[in-house]
């Protein structure tokens, strides 16, 4: 595994989002939510430092806890070419974060029933030979 650097644009978005009040974060997500989700997913995919991964997972957890409807941002058309499942399946998620994401339907592809999404997750994991995490 090779760690990559965060892009300049990603760093700008992260700095704009970091240490802001929930009301400011909510406005940023309303204005350009998919861009922030893409930054979070890219960090989880490309950065392997444990503290960084935990921090980004905490940001995502806070984002979803404040408003579960934000899970739709992970299914935005602009992310259609992104594998938004992979970073979550390959990192060691705490059960609280995983349950929050599951209940927020991040792992459920729009228009599919939960069972279909679970089958899709299993297929992805078989390709990567990762154990299925169930809570």
TrEMBL record:
<dbReference type="InterPro" id="IPR004908">
    <property type="entry name" value="ATPase_V1-cplx_hsu"/>
</dbReference>
<dbReference type="InterPro" id="IPR011989">
    <property type="entry name" value="ARM-like"/>
</dbReference>
<dbReference type="GO" id="GO:0046961">
    <property type="term" value="F:proton-transporting ATPase activity, rotational mechanism"/>
</dbReference>
<dbReference type="InterPro" id="IPR016024">
    <property type="entry name" value="ARM-type_fold"/>
</dbReference>
<protein>
    <recommendedName>
        <fullName>V-type proton ATPase subunit H</fullName>
    </recommendedName>
</protein>
<dbReference type="Pfam" id="PF03224">
    <property type="entry name" value="V-ATPase_H_N"/>
</dbReference>
<dbReference type="GO" id="GO:0000221">
    <property type="term" value="C:vacuolar proton-transporting V-type ATPase, V1 domain"/>
</dbReference>
